[in-house]
Amino acid sequence: MFIHDLWQLKLTWDEALPADLNERWTTFRNDLQKLDNMQVSRHVFEGYILAKIQIHVFSDASEKAYGAAIYTRSEMDEGRVQVRLLYAKSRVAPLKRQTIPRLELCASVLGSQLTTRVKSDLKLDDVATYFWTDSQIVLALINSSSAYRIAVIHEHTTAE
User: Fold this and answer.
1) CB-neighbour burial class of residue 7 (10 A; exposed 0-12, middle 13-18, buried 19+)
2) Residue pLDDT, tens place only, 28-39
3) pLDDT band for position 48 (50/70/90)?
4) Same domain for 73 and 124?
5) Residue 95 CB neighbour total at 10 angstroms
6) Which range of residues forms the domain containing residue 66?
7) Is residue 44 part of a domain?
8) Structural domain count of the chain
């Protein structure tokens, strides 16, 4: 999104950044060091015997970007529930302004496509999958339209 903002200003390569963008860049660069302390588990289920697995897919958009996140919800044999972020992807909104409903629809398409890939890669084809969006327009379109993006969602999901 930072580069997106730079493109909109149409700065040449040797022009100084405006003060607000220079401050954003400095903050971003300094915050990168915090990633050294981040730990990510390498195993989704950590060797536990699972009684039940679900996949939950959340999609959302704003004027600047849209994205989707896939979580697993696992119930262990002993009754413990574990929720893990499995995969997430975001995209910057196009330079040409789009409506929020259109970007919400793009987020839902992205979520459905990512889910197909994740379920195939992890061999979780028969796992219950739930898709979440806060866009009433997207929900209405999914239930009543056959436009291209809706057809993509239908291809990668089931009505249930």
Assistant:
1) exposed
2) 999 999 999 888
3) low
4) yes
5) 9
6) 50-156
7) no
8) 2
